[in-house]
Amino acid sequence: MAVSEFTMQVPAQALFGAGVRSQVGEQIRRLGGTRALLVTDRFMLSSGPAEEIKGLIEAAGVACAVFADVQPDPTDVNVATGLEALRAAAADVVVAFGGGSVLDAAKMMTILAANEGPLREFRGYHRIPAAGIPLIAVPTTAGTGSEATRVAVITDTERDEKLMILDGHLVPAVAIVDFELSATMPPSLTAFVGVDTLTHGIEAYVSALANPLTDALALACVRLVGEFLERAWRDPGDMEARAGMAMAAYAGGAAFANASVGLVHGMSRPIGAVFHVPHGLSNAVLLPTVTRFSLPGASGRYAQLARLLGFAAEGEDDATAAARMVAGLEDLNRRLEVPRLGALEQLEEGAFEASVAKMAADALASGSPDRNPVVPTAEEIVVLYKEAW
Ligand SMILES: NC(=O)c1ccc[n+]([C@@H]2O[C@H](COP(=O)([O-])OP(=O)(O)OC[C@H]3O[C@@H](n4cnc5c(N)ncnc54)[C@H](O)[C@@H]3O)[C@@H](O)[C@H]2O)c1
Ligand SMILES: [Fe+2]
Predict the structure, then answer these.
(1) Whose Cα sits closest to atom 21 in ligand 1?
(2) What's the whole-number average pLDDT of the chain?
């Protein structure tokens, strides 16, 4: 097998298991931290779990300030406000506790603590000059996989654009993957973030930049989602399923950050930026339509994924198996009660029509569609948005 050159960047340390959050203080001390900023959101603070983490940090003899003003689909404003809190606390370590929004906002706070900015300058690939202060990522959804990735996605509020920032300096120093934390997710959130995970696995596996290591991670991700997503959705307290999905999210993150995502993510970010549709949901509504478009570029790989997800039988030839992927993903959305794009309350048809050209341009500018098995033109992206409606 010819293996071309590639780089893998993943956290140097990742802890998995029920209750591993109790090791957060120990991990801070191992990193030499003495004053922590705990970054979270209002819900995680008001419902209790962030208080528990604060207690664990303080019990290790580490001072802990709290910043809880990260909104879903975090903005440059959230990052700037958090940076002020970081400076006021003179923090030397950041603990991010929440979903992908919290993790991403916290990542950029650590970076802006050590780099001039503005944040928009870092958009794209490998644009961050200096390492930030160390970050411990504790995900509570499963998930974006941000705890495993060198990626942050932040909304530029002036231009209504979700900036994709990829750089080795964004890899958390430690990921603490405690699946107990995800058990409070309601079924709809479980579904949206779980289909985001699935999309990471699929897009990494069919990416033009896939390598043998990302393939292994992507396949593990897809297999785990196939086995556990619907179980976690049906029974939030199914801890075996929660553990499986937490692992899938980590594996999917590690895979896509090193192999790239593709057209689904490229088209999904503009929908999030303009219409404030949750990231997982905007991926889920696009996934079947975009997969139909991408199939001809990687039918052997899509066939493998269809078999892994149980959409196709083992003995079926690649062309038949790959074609089953689209119907399989549509069925999965139906079973998880994911609505069609046109049925989302955030979207009004006229406003959507008026935005598709800008959204297509932003999708292309992110670079993700270049790694897709079939690379689209702006016109093709416009057609796909309309088909998904
Ligand atoms: N950095 C990356 O690698 C990467 C990858 C994919 C997506 N993203 C980004 O991540 C963001 C989305 O993150 P997300 O999907 O994890 O959701 P989120 O962080 O936006 O959270 C959504 C909601 O769920 C709540 N929540 C979080 N954990 C919960 C729990 N255990 N129980 C109940 N409610 C809970 C939050 O308080 C919030 O209200 C988007 O901005 C997306 O672009 C980043
Ligand atoms: Fe994603």
Answers:
(1) 99
(2) 96
Query: Which residues, at least 6 apart from 383, have a Cβ–Cβ distance to it below 8 Å?
Result: none
3 pLDDT higher than 70: no
What is the set of domains in the chain, with CATH numbers?
Answer: 13-181 (3.40.50.1970), 187-388 (1.20.1090.10)
Query: What is the distance, to the nearest Å, from the Cα of residue 16 to the centroid of all Cα atoms in its chain?
Result: 18
The token duo for 331 is: 């069925």
Residue with tokens 């995502």: 261
Which residues form the pocket of ligand 1, taking CB atoms under 6 Å from any ligand atom? 41, 43-44, 72-73, 98-102, 104, 140-141, 143-146, 149, 151-153, 181-182, 184-185, 189, 193, 196, 253, 279-280
pLDDT in tens, 309-326: 999 999 999 999 999 999
| 187 confidence band (pLDDT: 50, 70, 90) | very high
Both tokens of residue 265? Answer: 């993510």
* Nearest residue (CA) to ligand 1, atom 2: 146
87-123 pLDDT, tens digit each: 999 999 999 999 999 999 999 999 999 999 899 999 9
Residue 172 clears pLDDT 90, i.e. is over it = yes
Whole-angstrom distance, CA of residue 56 vs CA of residue 339: 40
Question: Which residues place a Cβ less than 5 A from the ion ligand 2?
Answer: 196
Q: Which atom of ligand 1 is nearest to the CA of 43?
A: 37
